[in-house]
Amino acid sequence: MQKTVVKYVKGLSETASAFEKRNHKKYGGLNHICRQIEYDVKHGVTEKEVISMLQKVRNHPSYSELRKGNGSMERLKEVEVHFTRPRIEFQQKPW
User: Fold this and answer.
1) Which of 25, 44, 72, 93 is deepest in the core (most CB within 10 A)?
2) Alpha-carbon span 19 to 40, nearest angstrom
3) Which is nearest to 35 in space by CA: 44, 27, 23?
4) Is the pLDDT of residue 87 over 90?
C-alpha cells in the first residue's frame, strides 16, 4: 500500500518514455489507485493504517522530496478525501 501511495503522489516524470506514459494513463489514475488500496484493506490492512500512511507522507521529513513535486500535494489530498469521507452502507431488501 505504501508503494502505491508513493507512486501515485510522485506522479509521472518529465523524462518518461512512451511506454511509461501509456501505462500511467491506463493504470495511474485516482480510481485505479483507490481500488488497489481498497484491495489491500480487504486483505488485511486497516483503514487506520491507510490514514496514518497518508499523514506520514504529508508530514514526515523522509518524504520531503516527494512533497516538492509538481502537483503532488493535490494528488495526496485527492486520496485523503477518498478515504476520509463518510461511508454509506446499503442494506439489502428482504425480498
Assistant:
1) 72
2) 26
3) 27
4) no
Pick from 44, 48, 37, 47: which is nearest to 9 by CA? 37
CA 20-71-85 angle, to 5 degrees, is 105
Residue 46 C-alpha cell reads as 486497516
Cα 73 to Cα 48, 77, 89: the distances in Å are 20, 6, 30
Q: Using CA atoms, how far apart are residues 65 and 73, in angstroms rounded to an integer? A: 12
Q: What is the mean pLDDT of the chain?
A: 89
User: What is the rounded distance in angstroms from the CA atom of residue 93 to the CA atom of residue 95?
Assistant: 5
φ/ψ region of 91 (left if φ > 0, alpha if ψ in -120 to 50, else beta) reads beta
| Annotated domain spans of the chain | 2-84
5: exposed, middle or buried (Cβ count in 10 Å: 0-12, 13-18, 19+): buried
Determine the average pLDDT of the residues in 56-77. 92
